[in-house]
Here is the input.
Amino acid sequence: MKLKVAILIDWFLPGNKAGGPVKSIYSLIQSLQDKIDFYVITMNTDIASDKVYNIPANQWTKYENINVFYFSKDYFSTKTLLGCLNTISPNVLYINSFWSFRFSILPLVLKKINKLNIPVVLAPRGMLEAGSLNIKSFKKKIYLWLSRLLNLYNNIIFHATSDAEKKAIENFFSTQQIFLIPNFSVVENINVKIEKKKNELKLFFLSRISPIKNLDFALSVLHQLQIPKDAYIEYNLYGNNEDKIYFKQCKERIQTLPPNIKVTYKGILDFHQIPQMIAQHHFLFLPTKNENFGHAIVETLSCGRPVLISNCTPWNDVNTNGCGFALPLNEKLFIQKLQELVDLNNETFQTMCNNAKQFIQSQLNLSTLSQEYIKMFEYASKN
Here is the structure.
């Protein structure tokens, strides 16, 4: 008999503003649904939005081929959450957040007081790493202290997707069982070539526009570039502008750039539009402060495009595999590298594109990943 895994996540498809975790869960389900029965429990709005989906709420329904329960805000309660879980009797509860009250803290409190007797696997999704903890740090420190005092995270299993995340979990919960398994990232396989001309560079940013993704750093670097007048840089921004104040600051910086450096906010893309967008650019330029996985990086490499990123991700090996550059967050280093990329010739660029696909395919073995996830869920169901 197939395992039943209930997935708790604040936002899910058709919403597409929440970024990586949604992609991870969608890819996981598509890859393992013939071996595990998945049931997604989420809200019926996207992140930072009050607009409800045109999908039946407060009942089990289907999104594509996926079982989903979309809670409306006014219907959600402890009682309705427990009722929703009781209707499917899952073997494992897979929580995809650390700070969510509805879908992480509340279920763990219910488990602690014996109202919920389901084994739990918790994926913090990078929320215990330094870059994330530094945002609203006082409240987070108080909660961490209190949760450890109450042993709220005893007898659960943690899922880390990188070595850095595993160390961050161990820093707070050293006695817990931790499975280290990368995220699934199933990307449409495309083979579209783009020419790289000297003095021309097409960059893109694919992420939430928030301080942790460091767009202001990227714009500051572009502002300081010294490139010939006949050179041209295009930097297209894709993602949810969730922090309005920060986005306003970024727009003000964009207006100060020289005319031969064009930065344009393009909005939010559906999942299936992303590969074709990537294929139209030369490099991902994402100097993020922290990534526990980095879906945008994986998607870019999978589409055969190199990356210019910070060294605050699990993908520093792009440096030694000829498919990109992972640099410390030092503006001078990024300025120097961008000036080199403006001069990059087509032959070297095409080699980097080929290296990108080979590298990511060697890193993400879907068959091995599938076995590791099954092993984690089976282990959880027995403990």
